[in-house]
Structures are given as C-alpha cells and as structure tokens.
Specification:
Blueprint: H1 2-8, H2 15-30, H3 41-78, H4 87-93, H5 97-107, H6 113-120, H7 124-149, H8 155-159, H9 164-176
Helix pairs in contact: 1-2, 2-3, 4-7, 5-7, 6-7
C-alpha cells in the first residue's frame, strides 16, 4: 500500500500508479535472488519503483517528442489549410473509431480488402461488410452535416454550383456594401 501511495504522488494520471507498482513487483520477481531479506526489502522496492518511474517519464517524453515531430511532418505534407477542414473529414471524425480506421485503411492507405483483413485481424468477408456499413454511416453523417450547413446563408449559393471559396467570402463582401 505504501508503494502505491508513493507512485500515486509521482505520476500525473493516478491510474498509472498501478502500472508502476505492477512493474516494480515484476522486477522484484525477476530479481528475487537480489531482493534483501527482512526490513531491507521495503527500501529496495522503493528504489526499484523510483527507477520504474524514471523509465515511465523517459517513455512519456519520447512519446510526446515523437508526436510533435509527426504533427510537424503532417503539416509539411498535407498543409495546415487542409487539416480537418472539409465536411468529409468532419463527418469521419464523428464516426466510431473502428469505422474511421477501416475507411482510412481503404481510402487513404489504399489497402485492398485482403490487406485490411490482415491489418485488422478480420476475415475478408467481415471487411467487406464493415467497410460497406462504415461507408453508409459516413454518407449519413455527411448528409447530416450538409443539412445543418443549409441554415447558413452561403449554402444556397454553394448548392447552385458557385465556387466554395467565393461563396464563403461573398457574405462578408455583401455586408460591407
């Protein structure tokens, strides 16, 4: 219990403390021959926990540094204006994670059904069904987004085939007259 309290006070997410304690006892189990006997075992366990916490911090630091590099790379490859702006991307973001993943593997990564089946650990038939259903849900979500956009003044011009960039700018120009 004291080891858990020690870990809770040193992690940002309290749930991670249980992992630290588990890892500490795993190290103790693997190195059982080195664990001191009697009352010396307790401070030895705290020392192991301290090292486990250091490893957790290093891992978190590496993970966040990698995420920062990936974000910068995505902006370089895609461009900041294209990130998350389209109605399709908004609709995709509203779907369940499983639907998003299968759609991305199909459309963005251009994997075939057999390849998606391997990546997701599914049968080819299950991929076909899930992909069909995910596409249907995406289309429904997209229609919902477009219906909610119909309340905006510029959507009527968009529906008539006008260029979307001009349509978005037009209300600002008309209001300035």
């Amino acid at each position: 219990m004291a080891l858990l309290a020690y870990a809770v006070r040193r992690v940002t997410v309290p749930a991670d403390a249980a992992d630290v304690v588990a890892e500490t006892f795993l190290v103790a189990w693997r190195r059982i021959a080195e664990v001191p006997a009697g009352p010396d075992a307790r401070p030895w366990l705290f020392g192991v926990a301290r090292k486990v916490l250091a490893n957790v911090r290093r891992t978190d630091h590496r993970r966040s540094a990698l995420a920062d590099r990936l974000r910068a790379h995505v902006v370089e490859v895609v461009g900041p204006a294209e990130l998350g702006g389209s109605a399709v991307e908004q609709a995709l973001g509203r779907l369940r994670d499983a639907d998003q993943e299968i759609l991305r593997l199909s459309a963005w990564e251009q994997l075939e059904h057999d390849e998606i089946a391997v990546a997701l650990g599914l049968s080819r038939g299950a991929v076909r069904v899930r992909l069909h259903r995910a596409r249907r849900r995406l289309a429904e979500t997209l229609r919902g987004i477009e219906r909610s956009d119909d309340a905006l003044p510029w959507t009527a011009a968009r529906a008539s085939g006008a260029d979307a960039r001009l349509v978005v700018a037009r209300p600002v120009i008309e209001e300035g007259r």
